[in-house]
Design goal:
The chain is an alpha+beta fold and 199 residues long. It is 42% helix and 15% strand. It has one domain.
């Protein structure tokens, strides 16, 4: 009895099927990354809108509000009303307690302008999101203040995947997270520790 091997046509068909499966997997990963970037852009737009509505309603930025009243009466207030959201962050993206930046989530939530907070923090799938002054953002992301001379405050994302940051930057700025108005720290171990966007 003679053994018969695979023909070249059969091997070619198997290779084409494997290639199609790999292409589908790679495309789905790109779509997932694109959806995550879209979520981040939505968060930026939602926080900008919430901050504008808060300022229109209370005449101060969230966190910067000196004398809470009405629905905000029981909310922590440390604001000085200077138009900047003061406060610093530690290396894990946690805002200094009793700062204006720390009061932002609770005030936006109490005003009904954001839907949820987690331990008095605005969080994403990647980490925390914080509103801070441009000076604080510049301390975390070198060159932010110089690129945003008319901006007094920023939205800071903590610990985002590099590919998501690149896609977000393509949608809201120049596509280069190391330059432009929205910028981040260097990509290390596939993550950008700080990414700052003008508020």
């Amino acid at each position: 009895m003679r053994q018969r091997g695979f023909s070249l046509v059969e091997i070619a068909i198997v290779l084409v099927i494997i290639s199609l499966i790999l292409l589908a997997v790679l495309n789905s990963q790109g779509l997932i990354g694109s959806a995550k970037a879209k979520d981040v852009v939505t968060i930026v737009n939602d926080l900008r809108t919430a901050t504008t509505l808060f300022k229109n309603r209370y005449n101060y930025l969230p966190g910067d509000l000196p004398l809470p009243s009405g629905e905000l009466a029981g909310i922590t207030n440390v604001g000085n009303g200077d138009g900047k959201i003061d406060g610093t962050m530690d290396a894990q993206g946690v805002v200094l307690v009793s700062s204006e930046a720390e009061a932002v989530p609770a005030q936006l939530y109490a005003a009904g302008l954001i839907g949820k907070i987690n331990n008095n923090r605005i969080t994403t799938d990647y980490g925390s999101v914080t509103l801070v002054s441009s000076e604080t953002a510049d301390g975390l992301v070198s060159g932010f203040a110089a690129a945003n001379t008319l901006t007094r405050n920023a939205i800071i994302f903590y610990n985002m995947p590099c590919d998501v940051v690149t896609e977000v930057d393509n949608k809201i700025d120049d596509g280069n997270s190391a330059a432009g108005r929205a910028r981040g720290t260097a990509c290390t171990n596939n993550f950008i520790q700080w990414y700052a966007v003008a508020l």
